[in-house]
Each structure stands twice: as structure tokens, then as C-alpha cells.
Amino acid sequence: MLRLGLILLILPGVVLMGVFWSELNSVNQCLAAGGSFDYMAEVCDMQASHPFIPFAVRNPMFVNLTMLASAAGFCCCLFGLYVRRR
């Protein structure tokens, strides 16, 4: 149970950070090229500036599920540490 808990505790956060930093890299490349990043369409264009929309607002289900999986992993870790090995 402890091993499953550690996987559920760590892996969703790593996946969430990977997706976030990947998108942030795309935004930085777009801004360095002189463009404007459209967050809803996830494309770089040369039109007028687009409003900033936070990652959690655009992907609420993904963010909530990864946080829920991490919380479940934390509970599994606590249970695994509480129950003795047989």
C-alpha cells in the first residue's frame, strides 16, 4: 500500500508540472519571436495581444484530477505507514 501511495503522491504532480512547463516553454518562445500567445486556442499569432487565462482555468478537470490523485496517494501512504506489514 505504501508503494502505491508513493506513486500516486508523486507521479500526478510530475505529470502536471511537465504539462505546465511544456506550455510555458511554448509561450516563452512565442513572446521571444514577437508574437502574442492565444491561450484558449494554444497558438502563437502576430495579432493584437490576447488576455492571459491561467492554466487552472483552462484545464480545471486535469488539475483537479491530478490533485485528487495526489491526495489519494497521501492517504494511501498514511494507511500504509499505519498498518503493520505481515
Automatic annotation (TrEMBL):
The chain crosses the membrane at residues 61-83. The keyword Transmembrane helix applies. It comes from the Bacteria. This is DUF4306 domain-containing protein. The lineage of its organism: Bacteria, Pseudomonadati, Pseudomonadota, Gammaproteobacteria, Oceanospirillales. Keywords: Membrane, Transmembrane, Transmembrane helix.
